[in-house]
Amino acid sequence: MDEGAFRKSGLPGQNTDSRVHDESEPVQPLTQAGRKLTADLVPQLDWDRLEKLRAPHSLSIALSHLGIFNLYVVRRELRSDGDRKWIPVPMWLKGSHPFVERIEKNEVGSEILRSTREDVMEESYRLQDTVFKTNALGLTEMVVPLVLRGERLGFVGMGGFVIEDPVPAEVVLEERFKILMLSAEDRRKAILEYRTLPRFSSDKRVIVTQMLQVLTREVSQFFEEALSLREREEAVNRHTFNQMVTANHPLRSMLKKIPQFAQGDTPILINGELGTGRELLAEMIHQRSARSSGAFRTLHCSSIAENLIEAELRGYEKNAFPGAYETKEGLFELCRGGTLYLKEIGDLSLAMQYTILRLIQEKVFTRVGGKDNIQTDVRIVASTQRNLKKLVQMGAFREELYFRLNVVELELPALRQRKEDIPILAEHFIQYFMKVMGKEGIQWKEDALIKLQTHGFPGNVRELRNEVERIVAMKESHSFVEVKDLSSKIIESLSPIEEIEKGLTLKSLVDTYEKGIISEALNKYHWNKSRVAELFQITRQGLLKKIAKYKLDKRKRP
């Protein structure tokens, strides 16, 4: 038997970094350096979808134009180690050349074909290289090893072509085919069929080899993306505490203690930026408490007119003031036996802070315009993005109310401080919005997730949620989310170090950031400079100097 030639091609699709991340390490848990491929992962691979993949299908069409009739894959779990047999499964191209069909029907010929395939795959398995092997009948088999995360997964192969050049004379072929014990007429037909087999010169063989290797890399990439998706889904489940998804260890440690401080009536103060999930945390505390059967209500302290806050809290009687057309229960009455969540408590005026302090202390109140005393039994959970301790020192927040609220203090970190959560949350939201929008099979490309992690996300989890919702709305089912699908603000965003490397000075970077923060705060508080100075814990005169420095103009606000 002619052993043919061996061509080294490297390891298509191989990922040499197969380290398993320790859960205690603050790393991105969802990149290609994920779990090593193990026996339990092999059955999870979706081999049935291979034929539907666009890139391998296109490559198979190109190979068919070069004369290839049959492509096949060999999966690791189909190998029988006892008798060393490999079982090829036709894929993409399932035809057969007339000569190959004749050989397969012949007892000796079929054994030669089987032996050649097993030999070429054994050699490829040992060398982890692309291998050619030509058998006694002149037919050549070629396989490319299919490697995933450094593990041998199987092969992609093709056969039924000839690399002999020039074409052997008829007398040579007659002598070669004698082992098949064909009749003279059948041997004549076999010779004619042999001469119509696709023939690959050395140059053409290089092209075919490269195409098969590319096809194999596409298969490896598909399985890598599929396994990464499964790992992200597992990570979401593993890192979900009630409705909050996080792999951040300080945050997880805090969330694990929720059942402890959720019990009882202790007031809780939640610190954190907008969009970090403060209201979600407040709801989690309520649901884990003995008050879970009672009502949970929210008062947005910064979004309601101050003259209406007292009526919202205490309720009012009919005709108590103009516009009070009917009696209405207040939040302290509606939340009796439940939880009242005061959002942005730091934005209240001193007068309204006193009103809330009195309601908490006395636990008895009357509705606006009413006379009857009403008993209340409400647990208070408050949140703020402002530093209440500093506001107390500045006289902008009542010290007694601060100590009333700050019995248990919780801190929710910004998303930029827990970048390891970005891939997990991105997967969580993509799964959620696919269900909402009736789509399926939308997957993240690794480079898109990596790019997400370079963005600062000033809007925190809420901004990421909106970004994923937009992406899912735009993408079709069974597609990949690539870098180009991200919004321009994310694609163009650079880390501070990258910006400095591109020539930006540290001073200009800091000035740009400070200007943006001050502008945002002025617009949020309707250019109330005293309020903004309090927020930044600087004097009003200091704020005016910064407004002049950055040439901020109220008339040009967005």
> How would you state the average pLDDT, rounded?
83
Structural class category: alpha/beta
Extended strand count: 18
Number of helical regions:
22
Please tell me the total number of domains.
4
| N- and C-termini, Cα separation | 80 Å
Strand content: 5-15%
| Low-confidence runs | 1-34
Please list the strands of the largest sheet in the order they lie side by side. Answer: 2-1-5-4-3
Radius of gyration: 35 Å
Largest sheet: 5 strands, antiparallel
Shape summary:
elongated
**Helix percentage:** 40-55%
How would you describe this structure in keywords?
558 residues, alpha/beta, Helicase, Ruva Protein, domain 3, five-stranded antiparallel sheet, five-stranded parallel sheet, 22 helices, 18 strands, 14% strand, elongated, disordered N terminus
